[in-house]
């Protein structure tokens, strides 16, 4: 009897350890590079740790946390009070936000496009279909190809509110599922305009000044850039102190966490 009890106890202990060494992250393609960098670091220092990072959009991340399909929801926007928070509490889930980094929604064009600055009103008119040719903005006689993130994206939600003032976009607007796709479409299409997180701006695209302010770490952290926004990890309740989830969602407070955030092109909320 003792031998049987010891075996059962051992199985429970091993199972508990295995479960403790798993972390499921779902969410934003914008926050994805930060989650990936954190995951790689933690797996390098904790042997046997299993971390999955699925980049399916902020809306899907909220749903996954509410349904218990992930431990951490990575989101490039805050949860919607009347929809996601309400549904969460009805299911006994209490979302807790952890502000991980700051970001900017950057309007990008092809490097060959001479346009270097737009106003928010001009960007809105482009996506409303009122401005259809770059010539209307002082550029070349070239049709504008407006590219947007899909509606499951937190970046779309922020753009829809900050730029579009919640007006519907024109039917001609193209939708892509993630930052890399938006970047690729713009970098290979001379007439295209799109929007991505700061970490996705490189030499293959040209970021535009918006209302006279260029998106940079300095202008985003200072609040000067008009399309700055926070990035979050959400958990169900505050994680148990010392747990893998706790260490992961508070890692941004460490020097190493800040270093990884900066390396991915985002703006840390701490300064050492």
Describe the model:
The protein is an alpha/beta fold and 272 residues long. Helix content is 36%, strand content 23%. It has 10 helices and 12 strands. The protein is globular, with a radius of gyration of 21 Å. Mean pLDDT is 91; it is low at 1-19.
At a glance:
By secondary structure, the protein is an alpha/beta fold.
- The residue ranges in which pLDDT falls below 50 over 5 or more consecutive positions are 1-19
For the termini, the CA-CA separation is 58 Å
The SSE order reads: HEHEHEHEEHEHEHEEEHEHHE
Radius of gyration: 21 Å
Helix content: 25-40%
CATH superfamily of the largest domain: Periplasmic binding protein-like II
List keywords for this structure.
D-Maltodextrin-Binding Protein, domain 2; 272 residues; disordered N terminus; alpha/beta; single chain
Strand and helix layout:
Blueprint: H1 2-20, E1 22-27, H2 32-45, E2 50-55, H3 58-66, E3 72-75, H4 81-90, E4 95-109, E5 117-118, H5 120-128, E6 145-149, H6 154-162, E7 174-176, H7 179-187, E8 192-197, E9 206-207, E10 209-210, H8 217-221, E11 228-236, H9 244-249, H10 255-263, E12 267-268
Parallel strand pairs: 1-2, 1-3, 5-10, 6-7, 6-8
Antiparallel strand pairs: 3-11, 4-8, 4-9, 4-11, 4-12
